Amino acid sequence: MNTQDLIVVMKTAQLGNISAAAAQLDMQVATASAAIKRVEKQLGFQLFVRSTRSLRLSKQGETYLPICEQALALLDNGKKQVLDNDNEIDGELRLTAPSDFGRNILLPWLDELLDEYPKLALKLILNDHNLDFYRDGVDIALRYGAPEDSSFYGFKICDVPLLLCASTEYLEKQGTPKDHEELSEHQGLFFLIRGSKFDTWKLTKNEQTYKVVLKGRRTSNDADVVKRWCAQGAGISLRSAIDVADQLEQGVVQSILNDYRVECKPLWLICPSKQMINPSVRVLRDKLRMYCQALVEKAERYK
Predict the structure, then answer these.
(1) Phi and psi for 86 in degrees, rounded to 5?
(2) pTM for the complete prediction?
(3) Least C-beta-crowded within 10 Å: which of 3, 88, 167, 206?
């Protein structure tokens, strides 16, 4: 029986809510729910009595959970004894990340990590296609969006706001749109996502959501190209706060329509299994969280 599944069961019993347990354990609700179902299937009885509004332990669950807690404590103690003797940051980090993010933002952070830990090695694969650990030969992936496969394990790095941005030169020539209707009359700079042009943007104001379809003559599957077009004054682009923070600080671009809210994109560090998580991955996770959150806060200050 998978110990991680048992931890999910214990946390759910403690909090009385699968969503709260998933949040504390840094996983998706679907992943937590699947873990509980696996344990119940292996045991042959239900641990929880479920209703639309509540979740409580069954009679069998009340008997089983204290025994489970003792077993997990013993296993955890054994693991700690082993790790105390083997907690060095070494080995090879095999990581894939989005091309533009990896090239322009992530690279100096990874260099710093390697400087801090001389026994650590790095294999970095930059691409923007669907996640495939085995095709790319990697163990961890940095991706926007929660893992779609419930068998994957991930750490949420942060929520990344999206901002509408344009250069000062473009706004001086074409004017600054005052609302979503005026925005639709401007030139959009579009990113190609899995072969589809991302030219419909959702903006929310006063609880009302608007779908704005822009016209535009420039589309690319490379976010760095879209970034350059925007800085050169070719149009308006929808950019992540992490990607645009430094350009906002330097005055290269401006954030517009800030009274509207655009969706956030969660950034995740994903592993194919819990077993792939080691001290090196945790160090990378902590560094990513620190630097990414700093860039999000910088973008908020300068927008």
Answers:
(1) -145, 65
(2) 0.69
(3) 206
Last residue of a domain, one of 11, 46, 71: 71
Domain match, 101 and 174 both: no
Structure tokens at 124: 């970095």
Q: Round to whole Å and give the CA distance between 244 and 228.
A: 11
Query: Among the residues of the chain, which ranges form H helices?
Result: 3-15, 18-24, 29-43, 59-84, 99-101, 107-116, 133-136, 168-174, 180-183, 223-231, 241-250, 279-302
pLDDT beyond 90 at 223: no
As a whole number of angstroms, the distance between CA 171 and CA 166 comes to 7
Tokens linked to 95: 């990581």
Q: Say if residues 158 and 293 touch (Cβ distance below 8 Å).
A: yes
Domain region containing 115: 86-144+273-301
On whether both 167 and 250 belong to a single domain, the answer is yes
Q: Specify whether the CB–CB gap between 156 and 268 falls below 8 A.
A: yes
Do 231 and 280 lie in one domain? The reply is: no
- The enclosing domain of 232 has a CATH number of 3.40.190.290
116 and 33 in one domain? Answer: no
Distance CA 220, CA 224 (A): 9
Q: What does the block give as tokens for 175?
A: 């004017």
Domain count, the chain: 3
Both tokens of 42, joined, read: 């292996």
At 286 the pLDDT is 95
